[in-house]
């Protein structure tokens, strides 16, 4: 539109154009690589949008987990299931941005009272920090639940957009200490969660009656859910004949990531790749298969490759090989001619695409195997599993944010 036409109507549509800039209408193709917003509407306009764009929906989950000695089953389940939970959420269409945070809690006198892992769409990083936690400490029955819940509600970077689904899953087996004078008690945190539009879901491990009463009270304060599971977390793990092949493909895909940029940017990217290899290297084949499947989804792909990954940037035409400074090129490409660089990148993309086609084929076979296995089990066993309890709660609650999770939970 010419300036002569735009100027007379600027006062009428200016705000709309600005909001459109912040929230562009996303086509099916562009959803392939959702990117977290860098500018929030509340920081620019000081209000939430009246008509949220469902293509830019976001899911934020903080798991507040009891990490005392009795919770080895819970921590083990979390390590096994974080990828399947993320994969279950990635089934929404349009694909949401998925961010997971962790808060581990024990009690005063233990090695730590709380330990936080920030909300992040980089599930590799979250997983790596989860793997560093073991269930230890405890002893007396009450735990620092009050402090854990307060910090879960107030100490994370919760998005304020209207169409963001925010939830805390409080998981443990014992009630809070109500005798700590410096604690902010759970009813106050419940009120804060309601103000922030954070749904509080609770999962009780075991059958402590006092904890059950408080867990129900917390869940009721903002339309959350309450569930009770056994101390082993009622975990279901399905090992398939395809896990090893998918894990191998996952390792090969990790090796295809190539980054460009200045020295500090490339260093950060190399560190990201090295960390992901280190933390997943010792993982079980079925966990690596879950990770590979999630990272191949629309929701997981952007975080998996991160910023300035050369092959994906070239594919979506966000970078021109001829304009990249030589010092910002990957080392392997620095001595190539312009024509050689183009051939090199296009060959690497073909290799990646071939690996992804194989991954899709094996993943489909894996899911068919899992579906058959689950059908052979008692429905009550599947319905009460740790993964399903979490997924079903989210599936119901996200409808209010126009995020539709119509498929079954992933395993």
TrEMBL record:
Note the superkingdom of the native organism. Answer: Bacteria
- List the PROSITE patterns hit by this protein, alphabetically: VWFA (PS50234)
Please state where this protein is localized.
Answer: Secreted
Origin species, per record, is Chitinophaga filiformis
* Pfam families, alphabetized: VWA_4
Where the record annotates domain VWFA, the positions are 60-253
- UniProt keyword list: Membrane, Secreted, Signal, Transmembrane, Transmembrane helix
| Signal peptide stretch | none
Listed name of the protein: VWFA domain-containing protein
Lineage per the UniProt record: Bacteria, Pseudomonadati, Bacteroidota, Chitinophagia, Chitinophagales
Quote the InterPro entries the UniProt record gives: HMCN1-like_VWA, Thr-specific_kinase-like, VWF_A, vWFA_dom_sf
